[in-house]
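User: My instructor asked us to take a sequence, write out its structure as tokens, and then describe one feature of it. I'm not sure where to start. Here is the sequence I was given:
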Amino acid sequence: MTRSVILWTLAAIAGVVLVAGVTYAASGLSSQTIGLSSEPLSSGEELAPAATQSPDTTAADRAPARRRAAARRSAAARRDQARAERRKRARERAAATPSAAPSAAPTVAPTAAPTIDDDSGSGSDDSSGRGRGRGRGGDDD
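Assistant: Let's start with the prediction itself. The structure tokens for your sequence are:
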């Protein structure tokens, strides 16, 4: 074997070893436990306040809430009734307003026949029919 083949083989082996070392180091960095992920799930339980017993609500405690709910329902019913009355009045006004009666036959105004202008704005009327007046004619008199 020649010397260059041996050097290239050693360089390839060194490259493979280098890649394996970098991969192992990156794997070690990514598997470290940092932050809260290293704590057990039960570690935050002492941070929450202690549970308290909620007092049973009595009928006397529920009565004001029931009265407020009934008042809200009656107010909503009054609003709905007023809204229905406004709609009814608007429909009556619309029905009472006279609208323009459609005519039996539409009237058509006579129009003049359109004129055809082949000049297309070139300024000269030589009727050569070449181009759109942008210097394509070649015979500018």
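For the description part of your assignment, you could build on this observation: Residues 63-95 form one domain. Try explaining in your own words what that tells you about the chain.
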